Amino acid sequence: MTESQGNAPSRRRERFPEISSRAYEHPADRSALVTLRKLSGFDTVFKALSGLLPERSLRLLFLSDSVRVSDAQFAHLHSMLRDACYILDLEKVPAMYVTQDPRPNAMCIGLDEPIIVVTTGLVELLDEEEMRAVVGHEVGHALSGHSVYRTILLFLTSLALKVAWIPLGNMAIMAIVTALREWFRKSELSADRAGLLVGQDLQASMRGLMKIAGGNHLHEMNVDAFLAQAEEYEAGGDLRDSVLKILNVLPRSHPFTTVRAAELKKWAESRDYQRIMDGHYPRRTEDKDTSVSDSFRESASHYAESVRTSKDPLMKLVGDLAGGAGDLGSKLREKFTGGAGTGGGTGEGSPGA
Questions:
Q1: Which residues are catalytic?
Q2: Would you give the DSSP letter of residue 19?
Q3: What span, in angstroms and rounded, lies between the C-alpha atoms of 189 and 24?
Q4: What is the spatial distance between Cα 44 and Cα 49, in angstroms, rounded to a whole number?
Q5: Which residues have C-beta within 8 Å of that of residue 28, sequence separation ≥ 6?
Q6: Which residue in 279, 348, 347 sits closest to 87, CA to CA?
Q7: N or C: the chain end with fewer CB closer than 10 Å?
Q8: Torsion region of 25: left, alpha or beta (phi above 0 gives left; psi -120 to 50 gives alpha)
Q9: Is the separation of the CB atoms in 254 and 283 below 8 Å?
Q10: Distance between CA 250 and CA 87 in Å, rounded?
Q11: What is the DSSP code string of 88-147?
Q12: pLDDT (tens digit, 0 to 9) for every residue of the chain, 353 residues total?
């Protein structure tokens, strides 16, 4: 099922021994997960499903009806997988399967141990370096422990369709599904960063995202023009368009592709990324000493900065109503940490995503 990783990368790239997922996790990923865990009824559902989900059945399904990646089958993918696990120092190489599906997609699922699944559509669409970033993306999900929540999201999405005729039952499930989707969209931004750490080729990561958006027609596409779409998407329109953006993204499990590309490029040009490449990053051995409140404050600061720099009309309005980015940062920090605000309130509400 799993194997120990030990081979060196197929080309010279930096390796990150004992790297903690905190090194590449997007602040919005952490805060959305905290919000999810605070959602009423989530703990009960999580504990119940952890014991009920047919994980053995899931593994047998892929074993019987997909192709397991190994030295004998899809050897180039197996090499990439071992390579990614070596670079991110993942102790065990997850089982990986290729499944017949023309839609380009990949996922990391499983409760006890992660399973990585890629579709034939994705394998046929991407070149070696683009695929390396995708494999690194999924290994990043595995290292972050995202596979558990992803599995529950898949199960609840299916369940919601089956009980759609029960109004109250469906509403309760959809509340959790909506929160899970909001978290998962943010977790994709984290995994994109992990993919870049593995591939260490920003252009390959950009090409892969462009192909997922527009197919295998790179000669017809341009990275700068593609990124300009993301800027136009964020800044364009009025408040009505801002609301439509929210409605458009709600049913999706992934952020919009142009947004992912812009976020990844911004991170690749940041000091945080360079510090990781220089070997300065949090280690897993330090995870137990990590302050939860510090993570909350970091997330709050990220949102304050996002609102301050956003060109979206709704975000500008939020900034104005909050009295500016500084005021908003204080309000967010109060909400995330439960500390006293400037007005003397207790700020004990649950943090918002």
A1: 138
A2: B
A3: 9
A4: 9
A5: 186, 189, 299, 302, 303
A6: 279
A7: N
A8: beta
A9: no
A10: 34
A11: TT-SEEPEEEEE--SS--EEEE-SSS-EEEEEHHHHHH--HHHHHHHHHHHHHHHHHTHH
A12: 446 555 555 568 999 999 999 999 988 887 777 777 666 666 666 666 666 666 667 777 888 899 999 999 999 999 999 999 999 999 899 999 999 999 999 999 988 889 999 999 999 999 999 999 999 999 999 999 888 888 888 777 766 555 444 454 556 667 777 777 878 888 999 999 999 999 999 999 999 999 999 999 999 999 999 999 888 877 665 545 455 545 555 556 567 899 899 999 999 999 999 999 999 999 998 877 665 555 556 655 555 555 455 554 544 544 554 454 445 455 445 544 555 444 444 333 333 34
Q: How far is CA 159 from CA 53, 58, 332, in A?
A: 12, 16, 34
Amino acid at 234: E
